[in-house]
Amino acid sequence: MVVYISGPMSGIPEFNYPAFIEAKALLEKEGFSVLSPHEAPKSATWEGYMRHDLKLVCDSDAICLLPGWKKSRGALLEKVVADNLGLVVWFLESTHNNGFKLIQPVGFTA
């Protein structure tokens, strides 16, 4: 199963790369193939990144949303596309030790 990671990047220190890297490691440990926008080729514009990233959403079976996704214009758009394509939607919650906990539908495994 291919999972796309979605979350806030713009306006966050280091473009939130540490969170994307941690989320990718967690999902891969669970046995998933992972697509992440933090690995996208550089673009001069937000629109350029979104053109690339929306293709990744379309190539995925599920989307995993990082904390703060509701405040991200790009993540909101990616979730709308995922919902309309019928992708499984998961969430990562922050834990008390600054890690993540994967929240996924009951009965779903890699």
CATH topology: Rossmann fold
CATH class value: Alpha Beta
Number of strands: 5
- The fraction of residues in strands falls at 15-25%
Q: Distance between the terminal alpha carbons, to the nearest Å?
A: 6 Å
> Which stretches are poorly predicted, pLDDT < 50 over at least 5 residues?
none
Q: How many domains is the backbone divided into?
A: 1
At CATH level 2, the architecture is 3-Layer(aba) Sandwich
Tell me the series of helices and strands, N- to C-terminal. EHEHEHEE
Task: Quickly give the structural class.
Answer: alpha/beta
What level of helicity do the residues show?
25-40%
Count helical runs.
3
* Mean pLDDT level: 89
Strands ordered across the widest β-sheet: 2-1-3-4-5
For the largest beta-sheet, the strand count, sense and barrel status come to:
5 strands, mixed
Which outline best applies?
globular
Give Rg in angstroms: 13 Å
Characterization of the model:
By secondary structure, the chain is of the alpha/beta class. It has one domain (2-103): Rossmann fold, CATH 3.40.50.450. 35% of the residues lie in helices and 21% in strands. The protein contains 3 helices and 5 strands. Strands 2-1-3-4-5 form a 5-stranded mixed β-sheet, sandwiched between helices. Helix 3 links the parallel strand 3 and strand 4 (88-94). The N and C termini lie close together (6 Å).
